[in-house]
Structures are given as C-alpha cells and as structure tokens.
Amino acid sequence: MTTDVKPGLPARVAELREARAAAEAGPSAKATEAQHARGKLTVRERIALLLDPGTFHEIERFRTHRSTSFGLEDRRPPTDGVVTGWGLVEGRQVFVYAHDFRIFGGSLGEAHAEKIHKVMDLAVDAGAPLISLSDGAGARIQEGVTALAGYGGIFRRNVRASGVIPQISVILGPCAGGATYSPALTDFVFMVEGISQMYITGPDVVRAMTGEVITHDQLGGAGVHGSVSGAAHFVYRDEAECLAEVRHLITLLPANNREEPPVVAAADPADRPTAELVDIVPADPSSAYDMRRVVETLVDDGDLFEVHRGWATNVLCGLARIDGHVVGVVANQPASLAGVLDIHASEKAARFVQTCDAFSIPLVTLVDVPGFLPGSEQEHGGIIRHGAKLLYAYCNATVPRVQVILRKAYGGAYIVMDSRSIGCDLSFAWPTNEIAVMGAAGAANVVFRREIAAADDPEAARAQKIKQYEQELMHPYHAAERGLVDDVIDPADTRRALAAGLAMLRRKTRPLPLRKHGNPPY
C-alpha cells in the first residue's frame, strides 16, 4: 500500500513564491507589451511610482471570480483584474486600488468589486486617504447584474467616506458608463493627456443615437474634462508626472477629518515683506493683471498647487502654505473675464471651499471682483442657484477664514467672496479697495439720472457725480469706518498680516447648529 507524502514546508514555500510571482507578472508578456504599446504603464509599475519603495502591502492577491457563464469558467486569473492594498506616500499611510487592464480589460465583476469594497472599508476604518488608479472597461458584461451591484457598493462607500478621508481618483485609461460616477463623488480627479477618457456613453453609442461622429478624446479626454466640463481637477502630460503630483497632493492633506493638515518647517519667513505686489497690481481697477503672481508672492516659496487650473479660469483655487501651514486660496482672476463670477467659477470655488472646510484647511480669499456676469445665458443657466452654492459653502465653513480686498469688490459678488457679513474672521483691505454696490460710473447713472439729464452739460455733470460718489461711498476707509474691514494695510505687509491672522485663528472652534445635514442649492 502506497502512502501519499505531502510536500514539506520548503516545497510549499517555493510554490507560494511561484504563485506570487505569477500574480505579479500578470496574464502574459504579450498582454504587457500590448499595454505598453497603448502608451500606458502596467498596474504594478503605476503603484511603484505612487508609493514609497518597498512599502506596498497587497491584499487578496489570489482572489478570482466564480462566474461560470460565457467561457469565464476557463479563465480565472489571480487578482481578477484589480490590485488592492496599502502603502506609504512620503511616509504617510494611504490605501490603493488599481485596475489591471490586461485582465478582462480591467472590467468590474463581483469578486473585483468585493476587493474594492474591502480596501475602501479599511481606508475609512484606518482613517487614511484612498487612491484609485482607474483603467477599466466598465461593468463585466458576462456577470450581469452582480457587476452593477458591485458599482453600487462602491458609490455608497464613496458617499460614506466623503468628508471623512481624502478620496483621490486617477484616470489612466478608459472610464465609461456607471464607472464615471465614482470619480465624480471623490475629492480630486487626475487625468493624463492621450490615455485618459471618461464618458457616460462612448462614441459608438453617440453616433448610433445622435448621428454625431466624435473620437474618444473629443468626447471625454483629459483636455475636455480639464477645461470644458470641469470633471478633472488636474491634467498632466504623462503618468510619471501625474503620479508624482498625486504624491505632492497627499503631503498637503490630512489623513482624515479628525487630524490637522501636515505642518512643515518654513524656511520662508512669515513676516517677509511683499513690496513687489505694488508693481504687480495696477491701481487702476479696470487694468488686468495675473492674480497667480500675487498668490505666489504671498505663499511659502511661491509654491501654489492650483486646482482646476484650466477650467473656470476667472477664479483661482489652490493649496499652498503660509508659515509652514497649509491654506486653501480662493481668488478672483482679473486676467480672465476681468475676474467676474459666473456659473462655472461659482461651482469651482464652492466645491473647493467645501473640500477645505471638510479637511480643516484654513481659507484665504483674495478679492478683486466687478460682480456677477450679466446676461440671459447666465440667468437661464441658473446663476442664482449656482452663485448660491458659493455663498452656502462659505457660510457653512467653520475653518479659519481671512479675506483680503485688493481693489474692486462690487455688489453681491463682494458679499459672496467671504465678506465679514457672511462670517469671515478677519478682513483686510489695501488702500486701493473699492467696496460698493456697483462701480461709480454705473451708480452715478442710477442715483443721479435726473440731475444729469437736466444739466446744461450732462457729461460734466456725470463726471462730477461720479467723483462725488467715489468720495462719499468708495473711499478706501469707508468699510473700515463701519467695521466691515478690520484694517487697511500696506500691500507690502500682506503676507505678514495673513501669517499673524492665521496663527491667531489656529485654535478656532465654531460648531454648527445641531441638524442632520443642511440642504445646499444644486
């Protein structure tokens, strides 16, 4: 009688190493070559760029699907097309899931989804950021409704994690149909030119349903979402640059909503004079300039991590540091549409304010705004509703809030840009500030219409009334005299004032009223 002898532990360990190596290698060299031929990195090459070397811990490496339909029973590759786990970015813990396009096109089935659900739950429980590297063909058709249910589980977790941990989506290939809603629910979306696409319905369906002929990139490429739809916060030239900037973003965010953003030792003195601002910002309120130069002058080492740089360019939003502490900057941009607020600018700034408030990032608001953009297109598009989003976001924010009025601040746009009346903690103004219901010329035409019309010389009368309005209601100390501005400052002292004010507010607490949740405008 022969007795089977089980292999010893060394043999089992050797088998394990072979299995692990096979899972890490992927389905085949040919599949890897095809991925590279598309101009894309493999899933593990991406994770290696994202995480600190040697820190990745993979979970459910050997998970496979259990479908028996349409030939899937003969194809059960390990990982089931998604790599999940945790690691470090600049020494700070993050959780990751990354689609492997070489396996079933990165499509989502039941096992694939359950792996993602698990890593999402771990991220929330551990209180650490979640990063998704998306490169998948959507729901796995062969698995039917279970694939759709898998997406539902992801969306529910995205919403539960919102405002609890930072969620970052990196689109590195196709992201179509229902899959697009997960990135839309996260805090930040990164895309790469030439390889990233997001759309609800692809070009073939669009052509069949509407007759429109359009390419993948024209429909949902990085350029479209970075500058037209606003669905992408950041767009980069290649994957290496993109993943390096994801790492940089992590250094600016807290691990979760119970922690403060990371602080670094600042080599740039907090009281550094900013006299160059006088040369950057013209005194004439109608002259354009680049607000980006102002922000870079004010923040540590000129380092601004701008969000949505290519979309709604009439408002500037970004993360930076002042005296080593992270701040969120919102500023009107006179170089684009004169810095006017419109539908997209209001949406962009509102979302950014909400994100900063969720993660305890103080807000610095730089104001140079002529008002809201007039016209039927804006009114019919819902500027009232969209402008109210920014108003709601500021009014609801409990983080330290400091406003600086550089030049003009007219009408409702002045109120919305974090004025004292809606709760900013400190308001500073330059001596070039003009705070009023509207510009002097427009105001004079309304207030003194009859006197101007009846005058022997209407133009001379108009000029005199404009001057009168400016002297009485638009002089630089009018708002300060009424307590709506805390101080009128020399532009050279702006960084010093911001650093001192933010330091004073560092322990600010302002609890919101007890409620289930507010009902913001949509």
From TrEMBL:
InterPro entries, alphabetized: AccD/PCCB, AcCoA_carboxyl_beta, ClpP/crotonase-like_dom_sf, COA_CT_C, COA_CT_N
UniProt-listed SUPFAM superfamilies: ClpP/crotonase
Gene Ontology CC, one term: acetyl-CoA carboxylase complex
Domain CoA carboxyltransferase N-terminal residues, every copy: 9-265
UniProt keyword list: Transferase
Pfam families, A to Z: Carboxyl_trans
Domain CoA carboxyltransferase C-terminal: 269-516
Chain coiled-coil ranges: none
A GO molecular-function descriptor: transferase activity
Protein name as it appears in the record: Acetyl-CoA carboxylase carboxyltransferase subunit beta /acetyl-CoA carboxylase carboxyltransferase subunit alpha
Lineage of producing organism: Bacteria, Bacillati, Actinomycetota, Actinomycetes, Pseudonocardiales
